[in-house]
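Input sequence (363 aa), recorded before submission:
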Amino acid sequence: MAADKPARSVALSRPLIGDEEKQAVMKVLDSGMLAQGPVTEAFEKAYAAAMGAPHAVAVSNGTAALHVALLAHGITAGDEVITSSFSFIASGNSVLYTGAKPVFADIDPVTYNLNLDDVEKCITPRTKAIQPVHLFGNPMDMDALTALAKKHNLLIVEDACQAHGAAWNGKKVGSFGTGCFSFYPTKNMTSGEGGMILFQDEAAAGRARMIRNHGMKERYKHQMMGFNLRMTDMHAAVGLEQLKKLDGRNEARRRIARTYHQQLKGVGLPAEQPKAHHVFHQYTIRVGGGKRDAAVQKLTAAGVGTGIYYPRPIHQQPIYLEMGFRDALPITEAAAQEVLSIPCRPDMTEDDVAYVVSQVNAL
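Predicted structure, C-alpha cell format:
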C-alpha cells in the first residue's frame, strides 16, 4: 500500500523568478549583446551601491568570486588563509586554487561563525588573510575581526555568499574588507548562476577585472594570467531585478524566523547577536542526542523540506584527508552532527509556517 500523502508540502528552498526577470532577459536577448556588457556593468554599480562599497566586479559564480578576490590581492603559493571548515567546500578550495593553504579555525557554538580566539591561535608568519564565512546569513562580529586583522596586518576577504543584505552594526557585510557573494538559485537573491566581488581598493578591483577576462585590460592585450570567469548580461539582468526585491524578501525571512523563535520547542534555535542583522538564508535548528536523522525522516514524511548544511566539514572531506589535513575542530564536528535547516522561504504563507512549527514541535 502506498504511503499516506502528507497534509501539506513545504519545500526547503526554490528560486523566485517573476515576470520582471523574464522580461529583462528577453530584452538582453533581443539586444544581441549577450556576454559581459552594459547590463553586467549596471548590475555591478547597483550592487556596489546597495551594499555600500565603492567597487564591484561581477563573475560567473560565488566560487569564482572567492578565487578571483584572493588572486587580486596577491595570495599565492606559500601563503596561508584562515577560514572556516563549517561551510561549503568552496571556502577551502578557493584558497587551494591560488596555491595557498587553507588553515581551518574552529567556530563559535552559538553563531557557527569563526571563533576569533581560535583564529588568533592559527596565525603564523605565513598568514596573509582571514576569510570569515557569514554562515546561513548570520554576520559575524566584524568589529572584533577588523581589530584582529589590523593587529596582525592581515587582509579580510569576506565569504558573504549566503549573506546578501546582512549587516553588522548597521554596515552591510562584504563592505568591511573584500566581499564575495554567490547568486546560486537557492540564495536570498539569484541570477541563475553568478557571483560578485566588492572591493575597497580600486587597484585590486582592476586586477580582478583582468583576471576574470583572460588577463586583458585592453582587447587582445593579455597582461597577466587570467581566466574566463565573466558574467553574462542575461544573468546580470536577472540579478538587477532580484536586487530590487532583496530587502523585502529578507524582511519576510526575518518575520518567519521571529515566528519560529517564538513558537518552536525542543530544538536548539539560531541566535542573532545584538549588532547583527541576520537575513536567514537558512533557518538552522539543532537536534541533539543522535536524533537528527530520525527528525529528517519524520519531517520528510510530513512533507516538510529539510537540509543539512553541512554534514561533513571541509577538513574531513576525502580530498582534504588525502592532502594530509588532520585538523581537530571539536565544535565544528559536533555541529555537523546536529544542525538541520527548515523552510524559511519569503513566499511561505502563514499556514505553511504554522505547519512547519507543528511538525517540528511534534518531533
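Checked by second reader. Residues 178 and 199 are 5 Å apart (CA to CA).
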